Amino acid sequence: MAANVQDVIMLLGDSITQGGWEPHGFAQQLAYVYNRKLDVVNRGMSGYNTEWIIPVLEQCFATRDDRAPLPTVRLLTIWLGANDAAQPPTRQHVPLAQYRANLRALVRTVASPDSPRYSPATRVLLLTPPPVSEPMWARRQAEKVPPRALDRRFDVTRAYADAVREVAGELGVHVVDVWSAIWTRAGEKEEGLAEYLRDGLHLTESGYNVVFEILMEAISTHFPEMHPDKLQPVFPYFDEIDDEDPRSSLQKRDAFAT
């Protein structure tokens, strides 16, 4: 087994997170700015809701009794809700009260000292789901074979975004308000969402640019020590290598060491 040499940023979510690896997606941009300092691990699972992602997160963090060497997750972003907000009888639907409870469970998995997977070095950011364009998504649903009914509602998804803010405040974690940022950029008009949503639900390149921008703002504000400009590369830049004894200067370093 190859040893992991860098700590990581873990992105937990649904297809919107999974799509962060698309060209110019927010995950791709994160991987670029944190290159050689922190690895970006994308655990975006298309179609998943908070109920289904909990076992995934549990398997991403070692328990206290697990002695297998694992990298430290320095930052965990949790970005779900777009599927939870789907309307019944869609099987992805999670009632709002249970959605709140699931968000609490996800955060406490790594942030609570009582959790067997407690990770004191991990910082957590909750992201709100983006707005939904009902006309765009209705057209997308109608194009499917067989055609499907509209199962996402603007006001319902907004209520799930509100729930993320509420849970973040309750647990004392920071929130990245994707909903408000994109809705504001869209001029608070449904037709303005076309620039940021490619099908009424998933993000365009412009949408991912907004997410990357506000995510980096949150890191700078709340976790400034984690900003890429404050970290050193795990292995030195080429002009720092000792020509007389290269091996001695090519030892792994702590990216956070000053």
Automatic annotation (TrEMBL):
<dbReference type="InterPro" id="IPR013830">
    <property type="entry name" value="SGNH_hydro"/>
</dbReference>
<dbReference type="GO" id="GO:0016787">
    <property type="term" value="F:hydrolase activity"/>
</dbReference>
<protein>
    <submittedName>
        <fullName>SGNH hydrolase</fullName>
    </submittedName>
</protein>
<dbReference type="InterPro" id="IPR045136">
    <property type="entry name" value="Iah1-like"/>
</dbReference>
<feature type="domain" description="SGNH hydrolase-type esterase">
    <location>
        <begin position="11"/>
        <end position="209"/>
    </location>
</feature>
<dbReference type="Pfam" id="PF13472">
    <property type="entry name" value="Lipase_GDSL_2"/>
</dbReference>
<keyword id="KW-0378">Hydrolase</keyword>
<dbReference type="InterPro" id="IPR036514">
    <property type="entry name" value="SGNH_hydro_sf"/>
</dbReference>
